[in-house]
Specification:
Blueprint (H helix, E strand, L loop, with lengths): L3 H29 L14 H8 L5 H10 L4 E4 L2 H8 L4 H15 L1 E8 L5 E6 L4 E4 L10 E6 L11 E6 L3 E8 L2 E9 L7 E5 L16 H21 L4 E4 L25 E4 L5 H19 L3 H5 L7 H7 L1 H29 L2 H4 L6 E3 L7 H13 L4 H5 L7 H23 L12
Antiparallel strand pairs: 1-12, 2-3, 2-9, 4-5, 5-6, 6-7, 7-8, 10-11
Length: 437
């Protein structure tokens, strides 16, 4: 294991690149949360202008991220024992959402796995905002060293003077203070021979860091902010006809429903009143919707997810509108699944199950999020069952059914078929015996 001096040197080396990487991810997260608002405003803009700008942002990128991540829900694994002892035992049915959303939004997230005191496995998500992993080679499954910051970033001590975790192939180290000068180091050897941190990648890039699914939409999001700000300006200043008067001494005038504007004027002087033409906000609404549709097209998210406009669409129409979305989540599942499967094999390795740890064919199963009607699915299951397709796989087509639900129901159905076939092939009972027998 590393001593305090070696640990400080290792952490100081990681800090050089961790600082820049975390700043990049935090800026990306601010865009996802809709908190980066920059648009043109006149010099000396008053508080009313700035209030409109603050109301112009929105979590468009965050909603798009969630829409993609909600199509990547894991609901089973081929090795039931590993699924129960590693995944289910750590509440990953609920925690996977945090990890998957961060991987889709930031390009990556991390899972930490350590031996538990009771002989099991501890699996916990680790935020990419606070995790930096050093890989010897870009193709390595496990990093050489990992630095992880514990706690919130907006309160408490300074960012670089906090609580930290570090992991290597021998132990985990928890300490206080600065990473370069660790204090109160608590060493916990795990004796695994590898660093037990798995990266969940949104894309499997040939080089560089995994890519975010929503980062390409940042320029379009900025256009949405501009269009929303312009729409609010029109609503505030141009949607209602502005009054004007000329030719007399008006003084201070306040227009109301039950008031009359008048001016004394000089003798022989004509006093005139009128209104300016009101702005048409519908044109700006159309422009705003066009920007939202552009965002949906670039991020491969169905437009009706963002606009909420579904009017008398048939099941075939919805399926056509969501075809690009399902191709997108198919790509995401292929990349995300590799990380989650490595995490489950790592959990099996910690449990001492060498066969499960080396079973590269064991794969996770994904929840069905297709917009199919129950009648369509039932008809497909019936027709495929006639030609001898696996009933367990067919039942997984049912919306809301997990892999375990499908396998249990398939087992019950097959047992019932076997019993009915046996009863049909057995000789009929003598007439003297009671029918109940």
């Amino acid at each position: 294991m590393l001593n305090d001096v070696e640990l400080g040197e290792k952490c100081a080396e990681a800090m050089k690149d961790a600082r820049q990487e975390w700043m990049r991810l935090r800026l990306l997260q601010r865009h996802i949360d809709g908190k980066v608002l920059k648009t043109w405003m006149p010099e000396g803009a008053d508080a009313e202008y700035r209030d409109l700008l603050n109301k112009s942002g929105g979590p468009w990128l965050g909603f798009s991220r969630d829409a993609i991540a909600q199509g990547c829900i894991i609901n089973g694994y081929e090795n039931e024992d590993v699924w129960a002892r590693v995944w289910r035992a750590n509440g990953m049915d609920g925690r996977q959402g945090v990890s998957t959303k961060e991987a889709v939004g930031l390009g990556k997230s991390f899972l930490m796995l350590l031996p538990a005191a009771d002989g099991g496995v501890v699996m916990r998500p680790m935020s990419a905002h606070n995790t930096y992993a050093i890989y010897t080679d870009p193709w390595d499954e496990f990093p050489e060293f990992v630095l992880y910051r514990i706690g919130a970033t907006k309160s408490g001590p300074k960012f670089w003077e906090s609580q930290w975790y570090a992991f290597d192939g021998e132990a985990s180290y928890r300490f206080d203070g600065s990473p370069a000068r660790p204090q109160n180091v608590d060493e916990s050897p795990h004796n695994l021979g590898f660093t037990p941190v798995v990266r969940i990648s949104n894309t499997l890039a040939s080089e560089g860091e995994p890519l975010s699914s929503v980062e390409p939409g940042i320029p379009i999001y900025k256009r949405i902010v501009d269009a929303t700000f312009a729409l609010q300006m029109i609503q505030r200043y141009g949607a209602f006809p502005q009054k004007w008067g000329a030719g007399g001494t008006l003084g201070e005038v306040r227009v109301a429903v039950d008031s009359l504007i008048h001016a004394p004027g000089a003798e022989g002087e004509a006093v005139r009143f009128g209104t300016f033409e009101a702005a048409d906000p519908t044109k700006m609404v159309a422009a705003l919707e066009a920007h939202v549709k552009h965002l949906a097209a670039v991020l491969q998210v169905p437009p009706h997810y963002l606009l909420g406009a579904v009017v008398n669409m048939s099941a075939e129409g919805i399926a056509a509108a969501e075809s690009g979305y399902h191709r997108n989540i198919g790509d995401r599942r292929a990349a995300l699944g590799e990380g989650y499967e490595l995490a489950l094999r790592t959990g099996a390795r910690i449990l001492g199950d060498d066969a499960a740890a080396s079973a590269l064919t064991d794969a996770v199963s994904w929840a069905n999020v297709q917009s199919w009607s129950l009648a369509q699915v039932s008809d497909a299951i019936s027709k495929l069952d006639v030609v001898g397709a696996d009933l367990g796989r067919l039942f997984q087509m049912l919306p809301g059914w997990s892999r375990q639900d499908a396998l249990e129901s398939a087992g019950i159905a097959l047992d019932r078929r076997a019993r009915l076939a046996l009863e049909a092939s057995s000789p009929s009972q003598p007439a003297s015996q009671p029918a109940s027998q």
